[in-house]
Amino acid sequence: MTTSEDAYRVLVLDDDPDIAEYTRTVLERRGGCQVLSLNDPRLAVAALEDFQPDVVVTDIEMPGMSGLEVLALMREAQPGLPVIVMTAHVSIDYAVRALRSQADEFLTKPISHPELISIVRRLASQWRSRREADLELDRAAEVQRGLLPRQLVALDGYQLDGDCTPARAVGGDFFDWYPVSDGAAFTVADVMGKGIGAAIIAATVRSVLRSGAGGPDLGQVMSVADSSLEPDLERAGAFVTLFHARLNAALGEVRYVDAGHGLSLVVRAAGGTKRLATTSFPLGSGFGGGWREHILTLLPGDTLVSVSDGVLDLFDGTLASLDEVERIARSASSARDIVDALLERASHGAPDDVTVVVLRRDL
C-alpha cells in the first residue's frame, strides 16, 4: 500500500479551474499521487520549494505566463525536474516549441487517464532515482573530503604539498600525509570505482595505512592492507593502486612501495629524472604478495612528484605525459607551484580525477 510519504508528488498548473480539478482528481484517486493544483502559473516557482514535486503537469496556454515560460523558469530553478506540457492545440509549432523548451512529454487534450497516469509514474520514478543517486554522490563526496589532510606537515628543509580535483562530484582518488617520528608519510591512491562504495574503500585504505605508520617495513604494511581490504574489494569488484612513502628528514631518505601505480618520478636538481616504475600488483588484484620496499635519497633541490592517472589525460594520455610533469617541476619555484600548475590545466576540463603530491627538498 502506498503511503502519503511514498506517493508521487505532482504539481498541476492550469488556468481553467475545472480542468485543474479534474486532473488532480484523476491523479489522486486513480494514480495514487499527492497533487497540488494551481490556477496561477506565477505561483509555480515558489511551489517547487514548498511542495517539492516529482513531476509538473502544465497547460501551455495561460494568462499572465505561458506554460513554456513557466518551464523555462523551472529549468533554471530545478534542472532536470520532469515537466509534462498539455495543450488543446495540436499544431507542429506548439509541439516543437514545447520540445525545444525541454519538456519531457507533450500531450494533447483530451488526455486518456491511463496514458497520463503511466507517464506521470514513469517520470516521477526516474526523477526519484536520479535524486537518490545524487544524494549518494553527495554523501560520498563528504566522505572523500574528510579523507584529505586538513593541514600541511611542517618539515624543516622540505616542502610537502598536494591537492585533488575530482572530475565529478566524487572520484576514486585520494591523497594523505601525516607526521611520523623521523619525518612524514604520504600516499597517493586511486580506487577503481565511484560513489559511496569507492569512498568507503578509500577511507578504509587510509585508516589501514595510518595504523601501520610505525611498522618497520612498508611491504608488510601493504600485505596487511591487502588482507584487510580483500573482502570489501572482492564484493565491490574493485582494486586500489597506490604509492605510499615515508621520509626520514634528517637523512633525506625516502622509503616507498608502489602497488600498481607507477606514476611517480624524482626530478634531480643536478639533472636527470627517474620514474619510479611499479614492481607490485594493486591491492585487491587477486595476485597478493610481492610488495617490496624501495629506498631513494633526495638531495638538496630534488623533487619527488606522485600523480594520479588523470594527470596523464591533461596531456596526451600516455606515460610520455610525465615529461611534461618533469618540465613543470623544473620550472617551478616551489612544491605548491607544481601543484597549482597541474590543477590549473585540470580546471579547463579534466576527464578524470586529478591528484598531485609533491615533496621537494630545499637547496
From TrEMBL:
Span of domain PPM-type phosphatase: 157-361
Gene Ontology MF, one: phosphatase activity
SUPFAM superfamilies, alphabetized: CheY-like (SSF52172), PP2C-like (SSF81606)
One GO biological process term: phosphorelay signal transduction system
Membrane-crossing segments per the record: none
Residue numbers carrying 4-aspartylphosphate: D59
Pfam families assigned: Response_reg, SpoIIE
Keyword tags: Hydrolase, Phosphoprotein
Response regulatory domain segment(s): 9-124
PANTHER family found in the cross-reference section: STAGE II SPORULATION PROTEIN E, STAGE II SPORULATION PROTEIN E-RELATED
Name the record gives this protein: Response regulator
Natural source organism: Lacisediminihabitans profunda
Organism ancestry: Bacteria, Bacillati, Actinomycetota, Actinomycetes, Micrococcales
